[in-house]
Amino acid sequence: MTFFKRTVTPMIFGVAHLFITACGGESDPSQLQDTRPGERLPSGLPGIDLSLNPDLTPPGLPPDLWPNCEDPYVSAIQFAKVRQDSSSRGVVSITAVVTNRGRQAFLSGAGQQVIQLYEESSGGVVRMVASRAFGNLNPNQTATVRYQRSWWTGDEFPPVYRAIIVYDPDISIDGNPNNDDCGTTNNSRERNSIEINRLFSSRP
Question: 3, 44, 99, 173: which has the fewest C-beta neighbours closer than 10 Å?
Answer without folding.
Answer: 173
